[in-house]
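Step 1: inspect the first sequence and its C-alpha cells.
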Amino acid sequence: MRNISIDSRTLEPGDIFIPVKGPNYDGHDFIPEAIKKGAQILDVDIPTHAKRYRKKLNCHVIGITGSAGKTTTKDLLYSVLSQRYTVVKTLENQNNELGAPLTVLRADDSTDILIVEMGMRGLGEIHHMAQIVRPTHAIITNIGMTHIERLETQRNIAVAKAEILVAKLPWERKHRHAFLNYKTPHYDLLLKKAKARKFQILPFGGEDRPEQNISLCFTVGRHFGLSDDEIHKGISSYKGSAHRMVRHHLRGAMILDDSYNANPDGVAYALESLKRYKGRKILVLGDMRELGIHSKAAHDAIIPQAIDADVSALFCIGDETAHMESDELSISHFKTQASLNSALKDEIKEGDVVLIKGSRGMKLDETVQYLCTARA
C-alpha cells in the first residue's frame, strides 16, 4: 500500500505528499516541511490524477455507500477479506470527494481488493466519486432518512445512493456485482437501476441492521471464495474506526463510543447493536443535526427505539433533544457538557452498558474521554 497524505503532520520518510489548496490554507506552503520529513511531493489535482491511476489497477474495487453503517461495513469487510487477500481500505472517515480518490491512490500492484467508502450530502456527489472509483463491486447498505433536509424525500435519497451504479466503460471488467439490501426501503428502485447498468445482483438481508451486516459479510466473503470459518474469524477479529462503536471496559462498566456522528439511521443502527448486550443500558444522546422540519419527529422516534433496546435511562444534551419526553423512559436533559459528564460519572455502575451518540458538533467524544479518565 502506498502511503499518501494531504496532511504534512502525518508524514513519515518515503510517504507521498499531495499539496492541496483549501479556502483557508495552501498545501504548497508545507512542501518544505514535507521534504524535510523525507516525503516525496506529488503536485497534482487529486480527482483527475486518481481517475487516470484507477485504469492501471488490476484489483477488485468494492465501493460502499448507504444511509447508515458504511464505516462499520468497510471495517468488517476489511477484517473478513484480509483473512486471504491483501486489502486496502478507506482510512477512518475519508469518504468525501478528496478521501475517495486518495484511497484509490493508496492501492498498488500488490493490492488484491480495494474498499472505498463513499459518503454524500446531496445529489451528484456519489456519481462524481463513482466516476473515479469505478467499483467492480458496489454495496448499498440501506436507504434511510439521512440528508432528508437537503433531498426532501427518501426516494431521492435512494436515487442519490444509486449513483454508485455507474455505466460500464470499455476498459472495465466484463462482470460487475451489486450487493443490495432487500430489506431496505426502495429496494425495487435500486434493483432496477443495478440491472439497467448490467450489474449482477447479490442480495442480502436480515431482521435488523447488525444482522444485515453479518449477512453481507457472508455474501461478500463467499463471493470471494472464503470459507465460513474464515468469515467467522474475520468478523470476530473486527476492529472499528475511531469513535465508531468502540468498546471501552472501565471498572466493570462498558462504554460504547459511537460519538463520531449521528443521524436517525445511525442511531437506530447503534440501538439495535446495543440491544444485544446484557446489563443495564444507558443512552447518551446529543442533537442530530441537518434534519430541518423533520428534526422533532426524528428525535421523538428514538424514544420507542430506545425502549425496544431495553434502555433504562436517556441522558440528552442539545437544543434538538430538549423537547424529548416519555412516561415509559427516564429522560434527563443537560444544558452543558460539564453537567452531563458529572451526572454520568455519578450514575454509571458496574455492569452498565453506556452508548454515547451525537452529531460531531456536539463533541461527545470529549465525554467519552472524560469517562475513560474518571473511571480509569
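Step 2: inspect the second sequence and its C-alpha cells, then contrast the two.
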Amino acid sequence: MSSSPDVHFISGLPRSGSTLLSALLSQNPALVTSGRTSPVAPMILRVSSLMAEGEYACDFDAIRRDRVLRQILDSYYAPDADRRIIIDTHRDWCARLGLIDTIFPKARVICCVRDPIWIMDSLERLIVRDPILSSHLVPIGRRATQHDRLDHLLSPDGVFGYAWRVLIEAFHGPFANRLILIDYDYLARYPKAVLSALTRELGLPAHDYDLDHVESLDHGAFDQTLATPGLHRLRPKVEFEARRCILPPSVQERLAGGMFWRTPQAAENGVRILA
C-alpha cells in the first residue's frame, strides 16, 4: 500500500491571493489543490463535534478519532491519490491549528495576507460591480451604503472580520511556528521568489511555473451561489496592479497600520514571513 500524501493548507485573509497561489501550485503535477475554499474543514469540524460531546463521545478514543478525521480528507481527495502532496484551502484552518498539529503533524498553513485597506477596497469593488448589489457577502439589510457594507464585512460575522480574528489568534498562539505568511503585494510582484521559498519550506518537487499563463479553475457555480461573479476570477498573467482606492479617507484611517505581521514579533513567534 502506498503511503498517504503529505498535506498542507492555505488559509488567511480574503482577497489576498489564496486563489492565485492555489492556481499556480496546481501547475505542479505532484500537487493537488482545492483551488478555492473546500468543504473538508467544515466536514472535519462537524464530525469532531460528534466525538467531543453527546451520546457518541465514548465511542472514540484518540486513535480512532484521529484515523476517522484524517480519512475525511483522504477520501475527499481519493481521485487524486497518485499526487504526492495535497494543499487544501479554508479560512477555518487558522482556527484549528491544534487539530492540525494532532492529525497532520507535518503540515504547514500558508496564510495569504494583505493590507486591510486594499482587502476592503477589493471587496467593495466586487460588490458594487453589480448594480442591484445582490452579493451574499453582505446581508441584504446591510447593503444600502458603503459604510453599512464595510461595517458588516469588518464585523465578527463578516468575511473579513472573522478571518482577521482567527489569523491574529493563530499568529500569537502556541502553534504559530506552523504558519507561513505570504503578503499579496510580494506574491504579485515576486511570484518566482514566493514559489521558490514554498518549494524549500514545504519540500515540494521542483517545477517550472508558468507565470504568464495562469488558468482560472472553474469556480463559476460557487461564485454564483454567493451571487458574486468574478470572486475567484484570475488574470492570466501574474503582475502587480496599481489602482486608486475607492474607500473614504475615514475608513482608510480606521484600517491604517493593520499589517501586524510586519513586526519583529513574527520572528519571535516562529512565523515564516514572505513579504
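Step 3: confirm your contrast with the notes below.
Residues 62-76 form the longest helix (15 residues). The longest strand covers residues 6-12.
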